[in-house]
Amino acid sequence: MSTSHAPVPGLVIAIDGPSGSGKSSTSRGVASQLGLRYLDTGAMFRAITWWMLDHGVDVHDAGAVAVSAGEPQVVSGTDPAAPSITVDGVDVSVAIRSDEVNAAVSPVSAVPEVRARLLELQRQVIGEGGIVVEGRDIGSVVAPDADVKVFLTADPAARAARRALEEGGSDVAATEASLLARDAIDSTRKTAPLVQADGAVQLDTTGYTLAEVVDQVVALAQAVGNPR
Ligand code: DC
Hints:
There is one protein chain. Helix 7 crosses helix 8 (about 170-190). The protein contains nine helices and eight strands. It is globular, with a radius of gyration of 17 Å. Strand 3 (about 75) and strand 4 (about 85) form a beta hairpin. By secondary structure, the chain is α/β, with parallel strands linked by helices. It has a single domain (about 10-220), classed as P-loop containing nucleotide triphosphate hydrolases (Rossmann fold). The strands form two sheets. It has a five-stranded parallel sheet, sandwiched between helices. A three-stranded antiparallel sheet has the order 3-4-5, covered by helices on one side. The site of 2'-deoxycytidine-5'-monophosphate has 13 residues, from helix 2, helix 4 and helix 8.
């Protein structure tokens, strides 16, 4: 991959889609290639969820989650080569990928107070732009004016196989069941559900290599001619 492509100043690229659609690898690849920052908003929801579990909050009690939503201090690093996340100063980059967090993150993410808290933080990080942001509601809610909006999809079997590999060889069938359960909650919640945003380009990554998907998104970004 080269880094010869100069970004448009203030460029914002929003990449949404379900779990395992290739969002993280694609977003990091695009950010590296274009010399942009990178924000993984899923990691922020995971970090809040980790904090709730660590503090004994019942993650299925939306009222209890709402009351605590303002407490955890989440800090996201934006280097696509070394993404980092801390909660109250603790590095949770590994802990947020546990089965316990996988199982609890969708109900926590459905709580409006959690979303409001993270929306504010996400917009602070986006700031003046120059960033690739991945999540579920980036093109629809967080950055509806993004210069490039992509909605990534892939067959559930392909998504599960990728996610299981990322998780160090987890059982593929169990991984598929877990990600489909999260999709169902993420797509049907009342606040900021997973949807293809207006103006988003849908890319089905099933039959493509990572490099091919990155190239397609970089091409979309390069077609954006006018600085914001
Ligand atoms: O991308 P991920 O699998 O790490 O995201 C974990 C969960 O976080 C996902 O199941 C729903 C939630 N999420 C969200 O609600 N909104 C976002 N912008 C990003 C993630």
